[in-house]
Amino acid sequence: MNLKEELESLRLKVIEEIDQINTLGGLSQIRVEIFGKKGSITQALHGMKDLTPEERPVIGAFANEMRDALSEQLEAKKQELEEKVMNEKLSQETIDVTLPGRKIKRGVLHILNQAREEIENIFLSLGYQIVEGFEVEIDHYNFERMNMPKDHPARDMQDTFYISEDIVLRTHTSPVQARIMEAHDFSKGGLRMISPGKVFRRDTDDATHSHQFHQIEGLVVDQGITMGDLKGTLEFLIKKIFGESRDIRLRPSFFPFTEPSVEVDVSCFKCSGKGCNVCKHTGWIEILGAGMVHPEVLRMSEVDTDYSGFAFGLGIERITMLRYGINDIRDFYNNDLRFSVQFT
Fold first, then answer.
1. What confidence tier does 286 reach under pLDDT thresholds 50, 70, 90?
2. pLDDT score, position 220
3. What is the rounded average pLDDT for all residues in the chain?
4. Cβ contacts of residue 289 below 8 Å, gap of 6+?
5. Going along 74-113, which residue ranges are E strands?
């Protein structure tokens, strides 16, 4: 058998083997067996050295045509097998679009944010504006503009974190009110605002105290504002939060930035004023502090003496704890989903 006949016989054998292959791995193995360094065609072509000069071009051209034809057949077989593999995957991974979709669990606002939004909406309905301020404040606005000069004993009640001698983490949101009064043009009308936000005090964390908590303070400054306006506003707020059957009472108190000052109590929502463990058998629960804006605070903001105003401040955590019977303030900050999902 001459070399041409040997190559032709080899070509027919390879074509038959390629037709029978049904895996990509087997196809790769055949490619190596045919064209590798020790492949059948490579070995057969070693016989070219024994040919005459006239035969070599003829056999060489035949060998090249044979190599190209087999390469095309291998590539066609590869595409066929790849398409087969893809179709098998598609058939196994078919999605039934008629099946109902998977419900995505929706998150819920933290209960403190829910309470804050509710209180904000109450005051928006009364025509108040909502103003946020800086959590890091200068001593001048945090204390001095609130009628607490340096070494004033009232500062001890709001001992805070000092970043420097004159820069503090704010102890209340009152600095926002001072800044707004300073910038407000009273010739265009009075001022009605609330200032919600986070505040900081150097408290020991326990069931009812935290070094960080949330507060909403309100301020109204206009001509003819009286204590009656303050009581009416707070009564409206408390009834919206705790129910229309609740009553409030005002008790004399002291705050450096208001005069006169009052503590505001709400009638107990568990015993309706009869006396129980929640209200310590008094029938009342302390809820917030308030009062008429101190004339000195108005003077420092250069507010005309014809104007008067009232201010109040409430803790969002305290309101929420009373409303939902939460006993430990630390539950708000522990990031326990079992706690949060109760308020969906």
1. very high
2. 97
3. 87
4. 253, 255, 261, 262, 263, 264, 312, 313
5. none
User: What's the distance, CA 235 to chain centroid?
Assistant: 34
Cut 0.85: pTM above it: no
The mean pLDDT of 88-115, rounded to a whole number, is: 84
Domain spans in the chain, listed from the N-terminal domain onward:
3-92, 111-343
Q: Could you give the CA distance from residue 250 to residue 57 in angstroms, rounded to a whole number?
A: 116
- CA atoms of 304 and 316, how far apart (whole Å): 32
How many angstroms separate the Cα of 196 from the Cα of each of 63, 126, 148, 293, 300? 88, 16, 21, 18, 23
- Tens-digit pLDDT profile for residues 318-337: 999 999 989 899 999 988 88
pLDDT for the residue 170: 94
Strands 191-200, 284-293: pairing is: unpaired
Give the relative orientation of helices 24-35 and 3-20 as an angle to the nearest 10 degrees. Answer: 170
Q: Return the pLDDT at 9.
A: 75
Contact at 8 Å (CB) between 154 and 256? yes
Do residues 200 and 209 touch, judged by C-beta distance below 8 A?
no
d(CA 270, CA 284): 10
77 vs 83: CA distance, rounded Å: 10
In this structure, how many other beta carbons lie within 10 angstroms of the beta carbon of residue 292?
A: 20
User: How far are the Cα atoms of 7, 26, 260, 338 from residue 334, in angstroms, in the given order?
Assistant: 80, 60, 39, 10
Higher model confidence: residue 156 or residue 1? 156
Q: In which residue are the tokens 């003819």 written?
A: 224
Residue 151 has pLDDT above 60, yes or no: yes
Q: Which CATH class is domain 111-343?
A: alpha beta
- How many of the other CB atoms lie within 10 Å of CB of 193? 19
Radius of gyration of the chain, Cα coordinates, nearest whole angstrom: 42
Which residue in this structure is represented by tokens 């071009």?
57
Pick the residue with more confidence: 74 or 46? 74
Q: Of 289, 310, 287, which Cα lies nearest the Cα of 298?
A: 310
Pairing between β-strand 307-315 and β-strand 136-138 as defined by DSSP bridges: unpaired
